[in-house]
Q: What sequence folds into this?
C-alpha cells in the first residue's frame, strides 16, 4: 500500500485492482491494520490523489470501473473524474438500511442525472442489510444521532468500508470488472479509511 501527497484536501481514489486466479478468488483487503480474507476476489489498494491518477493512454487498458458512491463530495467527484478515464464507470451504491439512505440516494440520483455522460452507467444499487450486526445503533434507528460537536468515536461505524468493499468486490469479480474505486476524504480519522 502506498500513499501519495494529497492535493486540495482530498485523497481521491482508493484503487482496488481485482486479480483472478484459475481455481479460487481471494479477498485480501489491506486498509491500515485491517486484513480480511475471503473466497472471491483479491484486492490490492493504492491510495492516490487526483493529480496522481493516470489517464486512459497512460494506464493498461481497462474498460470498466466500479465506483462506490454515496452522494458525498468525495465519491461524486470521483465518478466525474473516472468518466473521462474509462469507457464505462458504474456507480455502485450499497444500501445497508441506514437512516440517511433515502435522502442520500435522492441527491445521488439527481447528481448523476446532472453529470450525464456516455461513460457513466445507470446507478447500480445493491442491498446488504446490517440490522443483525448493528441492531440498536443510531445509524439504523435514527435515535440519539450524534451531532456536529460529537467526538469522532461517536460516529464510527465499525467495518463500514470493508462491508461496502466486500459486496462491490464480489459484484466486480462476477462482472469481470478489474477496477474498484472509492473516494475517501483525507481527514477521515477511522482505521478502515486511512492509508
A:
Amino acid at each position: 500500500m502506498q500513499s501519495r501527497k494529497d492535493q486540495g484536501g482530498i485523497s481521491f481514489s482508493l484503487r482496488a485492482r481485482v486479480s483472478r486466479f484459475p481455481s479460487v478468488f481471494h479477498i485480501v483487503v489491506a486498509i491500515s491494520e485491517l486484513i480480511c480474507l475471503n473466497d472471491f476476489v483479491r484486492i490490492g489498494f493504492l491510495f492516490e490523489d487526483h493529480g496522481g491518477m493516470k489517464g486512459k493512454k497512460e494506464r493498461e487498458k481497462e474498460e470498466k470501473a466500479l465506483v462506490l458512491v454515496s452522494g458525498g463530495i468525495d465519491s461524486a467527484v470521483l465518478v466525474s473524474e473516472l468518466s473521462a478515464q474509462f469507457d464505462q464507470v458504474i456507480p455502485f451504491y450499497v444500501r445497508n438500511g441506514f437512516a440517511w439512505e433515502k435522502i442520500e440516494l435522492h441527491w445521488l440520483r439527481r447528481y448523476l442525472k446532472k453529470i450525464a455522460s456516455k461513460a457513466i452507467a445507470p446507478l447500480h444499487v445493491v442491498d446488504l442489510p446490517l440490522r443483525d450486526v448493528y441492531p440498536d445503533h443510531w445509524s439504523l434507528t435514527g435515535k440519539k444521532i450524534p451531532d456536529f460537536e460529537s467526538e469522532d468515536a461517536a460516529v464510527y461505524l465499525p467495518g463500514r468500508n470493508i462491508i461496502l468493499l466486500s459486496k462491490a468486490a464480489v459484484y466486480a469479480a462476477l462482472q469481470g470488472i478489474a477496477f474498484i474505486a472509492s473516494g475517501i476524504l483525507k481527514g477521515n480519522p477511522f482505521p478502515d479509511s486511512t492509508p
User: Anything to note?
Assistant: The beta strands are 10-19, 27-31, 34-38, 42-48, 64-68, 88-95, 124-127, 179-185. The chain is about 25% helix and 25% strand. The domain at 10-129+159-193 is CATH 3.40.50 (Rossmann fold).
